[in-house]
C-alpha cells in the first residue's frame, strides 16, 4: 500500500512522538496529507483501534489514520449498540492509541449525547479529546444537522472528520442498519456531504452507501471521502479492526473482507493452554526456575 507522500521539505523537521521514541521514525500524517492524497489519487487507509498494542501494529504497518470509534461500545464494552458509550469511557482508549503511534493520525469519535445540543457542547467534548486524550482530530456524525457543531470545532483549531450515510448513533431514527442514499436519498446525501465540507471538515466518512452515489459524492467534493461499505470509488477505506481481522465472531456486514480469523487462532490457543494445564504438560522444566 503506497504511503501518503510528504508534500514539502518542511515536514522533515517534525518532532517525533515523545511518548514512543526519541529516535528518528516515520513522518506524521497530517490533515493536509489527506488533501494531497485525494489530489494525487493515492488511497487513504484507516482502521479502528481501541488499545495500545493494535495501534502499534497498525501504525507500523503504515495505516494512515486510526479511529478510536464509538464502536468500542460494542467491541470493548459489550453494549448492544454504540449509543450507551460515553466520553469518559472513550478518553482512556484514545489516550492509549495516541501514545502508541508515531505516524498515524488519531481520530477520536464523539459519542452519542456529547454534541447534539449545540456547538458549545460539541466544542467542549472535542477539547476534552484533544487535551485529555491527545487525539489529533475528532469525528462526529451527521451532515446538515451537524454543520454548526463542525464549524465551531474547526474554528477552535481542531480538525473534524464528518460521517454521513448510515450513522449508527441514529440507528433507531433510521429504522435499523439500512443502506442510505438510494433513490431520492442520493440528493440528501450530496447535500449532507457539501454541508460537512462547507463547515470545514477535512474528510468525510461515507458508511453503507451505494457505490455509484459514493463515487458521485467523491467527484463533487474537494475533501477526501472515506468509505465504509461505499465501494471502490472513494478516496480511502476504513474498517472496524475486529471485523477485518475476524475477531468479532458471527456475521459480518457484506462490505467486510476478513483478512484473518483471529477468533479461531485465539480459541485454539486457549484450548491448548487449558489442555496442557489439565494434563500437566505445562509448565515444563524449561518454564520453571531452579
Ligand atoms: O465507530 C466506528 O467504528 C465508526 C466507523 C464504522 C465509521 O464510526
Q: How many separate domains make up the residues?
A: 1
Distance between the termini: 49 Å
Indicate the CATH topology: TIM Barrel
| Number of separate strands | 8
Q: What gyration radius follows from the Cα positions, in whole Å? A: 20 Å
Largest sheet, spatial ordering of strands: 1-2-3-4-5-6-7-8
Low-confidence stretches: 7-26
Overall 3D geometry?
Answer: globular
> Bound compounds, please?
3-methyl-2-oxobutanoic acid
The biggest sheet, with number of strands, parallel, antiparallel or mixed sense and barrel status, is: 8 strands, parallel, barrel
Secondary-structure class = alpha/beta
What is the CATH architecture annotation? Alpha-Beta Barrel
CATH superfamily descriptor: Phosphoenolpyruvate-binding domains
User: What portion of residues belong to β-strands?
Assistant: 5-15%
